[in-house]
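Design request, tokens follow.
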């Protein structure tokens, strides 16, 4: 997801009128939650939004406990490892580790990912209770209809994969030469559940090997 969004994109995603979005972005800029980029005339998160979210991140004890083993897995896979939680109809990253600073694969804390298009979102859906999964999918269909239509069949297939292997993947990243694997932490409840994901360069047998490592680590972190 781009860190910069314009009013037209916000209208499409939120389903609000252009005038309502314009009023909201103006107010949020005045309050410091958004900052307008002078060149693109689009918006990014402002310092106030960071200040509001930081106490939440500090309160998530799983981040501190998981980081050392996440870093070890990132080095082993020569990629990046993430923790994510649901934020309405999308997934937001709450922790991120890379094999090294020059790793080409990587998203920062706070990045928002598609619920139906990402491995981490599909793993959340596969582990969610039925009523909550259906509620979230309805929200995705309303807010991001093209994304829903594009990935709906894959979402169903990944639920089957989760039942067999314990993890979900993103086939789009595989087509780009990367492996993206994710599994819900064992013992976490749907809705407040945390999902572990790993993205790494694709290689022969990489998906199965990384998938097994992600599932094992998710079970250890969830059961600790």
């Amino acid at each position: 997801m781009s860190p910069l969004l314009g009013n037209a994109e916000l209208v499409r995603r939120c389903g609000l009128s252009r005038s309502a979005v314009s009023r909201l972005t103006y107010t949020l800029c005045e309050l410091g939650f958004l900052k307008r980029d002078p060149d693109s005339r689009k918006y990014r998160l402002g310092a106030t939004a960071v200040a509001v979210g930081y106490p939440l991140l500090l309160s998530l004890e799983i981040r501190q406990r998981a980081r050392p083993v996440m870093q070890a897995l990132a080095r082993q896979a020569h990629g990046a490892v993430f923790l994510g939680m649901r934020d309405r109809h999308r997934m937001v990253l709450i922790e991120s580790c890379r094999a090294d600073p020059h790793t080409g694969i990587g998203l920062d804390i706070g990045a928002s990912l598609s619920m139906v298009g990402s491995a981490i979102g599909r793993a959340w859906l596969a582990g969610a209770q039925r009523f909550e999964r259906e509620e979230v999918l309805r929200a995705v269909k309303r807010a991001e209809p093209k994304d829903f239509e594009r990935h709906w069949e894959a979402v169903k297939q990944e639920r089957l994969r989760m039942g067999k292997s314990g993890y979900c993947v993103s086939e789009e990243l595989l087509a780009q030469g990367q492996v993206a694997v994710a599994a819900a932490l064992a013992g976490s409840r749907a809705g407040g559940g945390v999902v572990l994901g790993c993205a790494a360069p694709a290689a022969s047998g990489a998906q199965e090997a990384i998938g097994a490592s992600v599932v094992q680590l998710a079970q250890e972190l969830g059961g600790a």
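Comment from the thread starter after seeing the answer: thanks! The chain has a mean pLDDT of 84.
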